[in-house]
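Write out a record, fold above all:
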Amino acid sequence: MSNDSTSPGYLTPTSVPQAYDEALERELSRWVGAVSGLPPGMVRPRWTPVQAALPAADVNWCGFGITGFTSDDSPAFVSQSDESDQLWRHEVIETLASFYGPSGQSIATLFRDGLTVEQNNETLKQHELSLAGYSDLIPFPELINNQWVRRYDITVRLRRKVIRDYGIKSLASAPVSFFGD
C-alpha cells in the first residue's frame, strides 16, 4: 500500500520520529543528573511499571518525569520537494523534578541555577530541545515509610520543533481542457 498522496487513504510520516517515551525520558534524566551534580543512578524515573526500592532518607536523589506536552494549534506545512512536504509544529515538554534527601534543597538550587548556564544546555540542543522556562522551587515534604523526607519540586519547560515528512506530492500537471472564446 502506498504511503503518499498518489493514492487514497491515510498518510503516516515517512521520516524517523524524534525521541518520545522512554528514549526521551532517559535523555532528560541524564541531563538533570549532569546539571544537578547527582551521581549516576540517582535521577530515577517517576513512573515505571515496576518500582525500584526508594533510597534511604539520608541519600540525595531526584525523582523525574514528563508531566505534559503542549503544542501550537496550527502546524505549518512546508513544501520540501515535488515528492514530500514537512509538517512543522512547536511543542513544549513539561517536566517535574523532585529533589530528595538531606541536601535536597541545595541540589535543587544548583539545578535551578545550572539551567541558566548556556553550556549546560548544549546537550539539550543536540536533542533539538531548548529551555523555555522553569518554576520556583516548592518545598513539598513527603511521608515515606512513616518518615518525613525533605523534598523540593521544580517544573521545567522545554521547547522543540517537531518536523515530520509526509509523502504529499506536488501537482505537476493536470488533464485540463479549455474551450470557448
Summary: Residues 90 and 161 are 4 Å apart (CA to CA). The two ends are 44 Å apart (CA to CA). The chain has one domain: 21-49+58-166. Residues 21-36 form the longest helix (16 residues).
